[in-house]
Amino acid sequence: MIVRETLSHGASNATLSRQAFIDMITNAVEVYKKESFGILIGVRHKKHYFVSDVIAYQMATNEYETVDVTTFRVNRINFALSHLTNQKVIGDFHSHPEGPDRLSATDVADLFKGTPTLTCLVSIYKSRKCEQWKRNPDNSISGSIGGKFFIRIAAFEVVHKKSQLRRLKIVCPYLKRINKLKLHKKALC
Question: Mind listing the domains of the chain with CATH numbers?
């Protein structure tokens, strides 16, 4: 199977709630130097995803270039969610400590094996820069965390029928508040 990555044009986007944004980043920071992994909870409406919550797998086996979660634990989480919320698992996220800012061949192969169609990649780097949060030309978002880390988040949609991996525009209204309050500069900057 040949998989092409395309840049999404038009209305395709992934909106991150304040809580989902914070949870993805704090999980990546918590296990920094190793990869993090979790699921995205929310709703999908046509070409729009709304990620309301993120659940990180606490018992994942985090390594420097991989993360492993047993099927038993995935099933246990899915069971609990089905009894706690009407929202669904719409995808997953993982981090790449010190990059790269792209999905690996293993990441892509795993995406096409699964059923959720949304994935977010959190690339996290040690950095002394203090950069405001912004949307990048490739539809990702990026910014600093207190002069210690630089983060880039990209979203992708799997289109099984076309064997495509479509890069989605990330929308995160919370970024304006971070920049207005200068939270990206707090502490070391």
Answer: 4-185 (3.40.140.10)
